[in-house]
Design goal:
This protein has 207 residues and is α/β, with parallel strands linked by helices. 53% of the residues lie in helices and 9% in strands. The chain contains 7 helices and 4 strands; from the N terminus they run βαββαααβααα.
Length: 207
């Protein structure tokens, strides 16, 4: 029997999509790196960290395997379409004028400011709610092929309010310890089953 396999889901360690983060990003990264090192060093587990953040992993333990979903997320139709409409097309539209000295420079600054405003005030509030579903779709396409041979025995969700992170379900449903308890008298509701699965691997339980 091989070493146990542990998966740590940390989709947004910078907390960039959290409107009211309860911890600083540096502390969140520290918790993730510390957990990964603990399971690899103290328990001899094969640790998998799954994230949608490309940066901040220089200090990740060399024994830990990092799965990045950011490139696949960027190719998803929703963020791709927003980037095309809000940033790429306006940039192409003003490009012929940019070379005309000050007027062109002012137009480029206005274009940049408008694109950032639309991105932050219009797209991000919507995408904050849609992103877990986007990442869940990406994870279902990417992770099962890799985990089919040796499913993790434990899944730890580091993102805030982990029960609202559908990206946990593809791995959690394949983890024996995450199966909800069954009773002879009643069948748990879908919401209750989600809470049971999530409670097995919350950040507080692993801190």
């Amino acid at each position: 029997m091989g070493s146990p396999r542990v998966m740590i889901l940390a989709m947004d360690p910078k907390l960039s999509m959290d409107p009211d983060p309860s911890v600083e990003p540096a502390r969140q990264y520290g918790r993730i790196l510390g957990l990964a090192r603990h399971f690899a060093e103290e328990e001899g587990a094969r640790v998998e960290v799954v994230t949608a953040e490309p940066d901040g992993w220089d200090e990740l333990d060399g024994r830990v395997r990092l799965h990045r979903l950011d490139a696949a997320e960027a190719r998803h139709p929703l963020p791709w379409l927003e980037h095309t409409i809000v940033i790429r097309l306006p940039r192409v539209a003003v490009r012929p004028v940019v070379r005309f000295g000050r007027p062109g420079a002012r137009l480029e600054r206005a274009r940049t400011s408008a694109s950032r405003t639309v991105h932050r005030r219009v797209f991000l509030p919507f995408y904050r709610h849609a992103r877990p579903l986007v990442l869940a779709r990406v994870a279902r396409r990417r992770l099962p092929r890799d985990l089919a041979a040796a499913p993790p025995v434990r899944v730890i969700v580091m993102d805030r309010r982990p029960c609202r992170s559908p990206a946990a379900w593809p791995a959690a449903t394949r983890t024996p310890s995450s199966r909800p308890a069954r009773t002879a008298t009643s069948t748990p509701s879908p919401d209750r089953r989600r809470r049971q699965r999530c409670s097995v691997s919350s950040p507080d339980d692993s801190a």
